[in-house]
Design brief:
The complex is a heterodimer of chains A (about 170) and B (about 140).
Chain A: H1 9-28, H2 31-48, H3 57-78, H4 100-118, H5 121-133, H6 137-144, H7 148-166
Helix pairs in contact in A: 1-2, 1-5, 2-3, 3-6, 5-7, 6-7
Chain B: H1 7-12, H2 18-30, H3 32-49, E1 53-54, E2 76-78, H4 81-86, E3 89-94, E4 101-106, H5 111-119
Antiparallel strand pairs in B: 1-4, 2-3, 3-4
Helix pairs in contact in B: 2-3
Classes of the chains: A mainly alpha (about 170), B alpha+beta (about 140).
Amino acid sequence: LSESIPLTWEEVARVHGRRIYNYAYRLTGNTDDAADLVQEVLLRVRQGLRQYQPGSFEGWLWRITRNAFVDELRRRRRRPTVPLPDDLDRLDLGWSPPPDEVLASIRFDEDIQKSLLDLPFEFREAVIMCDVIGLSYEEISQAVSAPIGTVRSRIHRGRRMLRERLG
Amino acid sequence: MIHPGDLLSAYLDGELTAQERNRVEGHAASCDGCRNELEGLMTVRSQLRSLLSLDVAPELLGLPARPARPAHRHRRVLVGAAAAAAAVVMVAATLTAPDNVVSVSIGDLASPLDARISDSPALVPGQLVPIDSPEGEG
């Protein structure tokens, strides 16, 4: 697999910033948390890029992302924050309503998001990395520091749980 | 009969060896339960893959800001020359905070939105209508 390696943090931000943001959003269901995480990850990338050894860039980047996320979870557990209201509530901010097709997409999206949040962290994470971010099993294995067999099992069980919840 | 279990998901992801793939296909040919499970997994997999991708403001990433957007940003419709032919329509709608735009890609779109676009005097099929924030993955 040939992949071009971004050499500066700006390139990482430009090429991967949106993916990191969406990974965090899907894990938490919260745009503010996603914004915090993406900034923390880019800071770590900036600090770690000099030590980067040629290899799987995706595995490296997503391990940093994952570790930043897990550290943040630990920090939050020590200092709980007040949950934010549902995103849809914030639609009513003086905008006229979006077309029905868009609303339907958003509702469908929210159903899946809610079901995702019901999954245990390891399963949710594996499914998001595979199906939302599009990482290979090998890359996920590097990112979460677990054998490929474990990754395979988490993806499978995560999808089965989602299937049951979505009906 | 040993069911393939988590090989089913890996099968859909193209993550199996040729031997494992043959095993899954051979088994599924004669096992209704596993065929049903494959179908269910395929559905949930494609639902996950169709989740909206939230846009992120460049400033949030420490990158230079995009050019200023017009005040009324909701309900923009982009119709490209090729997109019109392929009936691929991008709808960008404001979802949460003012700076978060959700881009919804709808491929092979059927009638309702198409009809509305062609009814609209401002949008001529085949004409490229500028959208203020071209956003790509690259």
